[in-house]
Design the sequence.
């Protein structure tokens, strides 16, 4: 069974600083996807970034980037120039690419607070 | 990306009753899922809603308690049956697949309180 671990329950950072959220996962599969989702107080789950395991290049989306270390099974999220709107719960998630079994497994989440 | 309309957004129900939650997707999707989320906690998968066949339930969840329908590729319902206060939670539906650029999209959730 796949597991996703987020070891930082809460983090806080000053506005405009950089913060890194950690995520590790465990799987015996070779083909899979990793995601970071953001859930603000509105409760809406928002996709932040997506990484395909077969791609060595780290995914980036504007201020958001990942450090994907496949051998170490690590998938951290870096938020640069943090903004107040980044305050939210962040969930790391994993899925395999076997059709019919493409369900997301979530980590326990990191509550991130951006301090003005 | 696909957009999901989920309703109701919240409800307060009497114990012993049932509530049906609906999710409508604005495009055809192969995979739909139902999750439960306790406030401040992570998402737990209840089941995968399969179009035209019975849902696939995760360990700890059974069809009699959480019947699911998926009549077509854009719509699904989750019923929480014979509710007790322990069923108070947020329920979310999701749709998509990892191969798509937007991955999975989520409904806005249903906050259920059982009294």
Sequence:
């Amino acid at each position: 069974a796949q597991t996703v671990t987020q070891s930082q329950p809460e983090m806080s950072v000053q506005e405009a600083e950089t913060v890194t959220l950690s995520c590790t996962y465990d799987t015996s599969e070779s083909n899979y996807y990793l995601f970071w989702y953001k859930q603000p107080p509105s409760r809406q789950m928002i996709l932040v970034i997506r990484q395909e395991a077969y791609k060595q290049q780290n995914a980036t989306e504007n201020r958001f980037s990942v450090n994907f270390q496949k051998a170490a099974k690590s998938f951290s999220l870096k938020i640069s120039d943090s903004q107040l709107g980044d305050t939210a719960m962040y969930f790391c998630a994993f899925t395999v690419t076997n059709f019919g079994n493409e369900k997301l497994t979530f980590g326990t989440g990191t509550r991130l607070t951006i301090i003005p | 990306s696909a957009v999901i309309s989920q309703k109701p957004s919240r409800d307060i129900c009497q114990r012993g009753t049932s509530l049906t939650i609906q999710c409508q997707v604005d495009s055809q999707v192969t995979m739909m899922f139902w999750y439960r989320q306790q406030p401040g906690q992570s998402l737990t998968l209840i089941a995968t809603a399969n179009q035209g066949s019975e849902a696939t339930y995760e360990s700890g969840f059974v069809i009699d308690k959480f019947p699911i329908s998926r009549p077509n590729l854009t719509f699904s319902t989750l019923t929480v049956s014979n509710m007790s206060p322990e069923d108070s939670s947020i329920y979310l539906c999701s749709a998509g697949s990892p191969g798509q650029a937007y991955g999975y999209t989520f409904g806005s959730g249903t906050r259920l309180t059982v009294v």
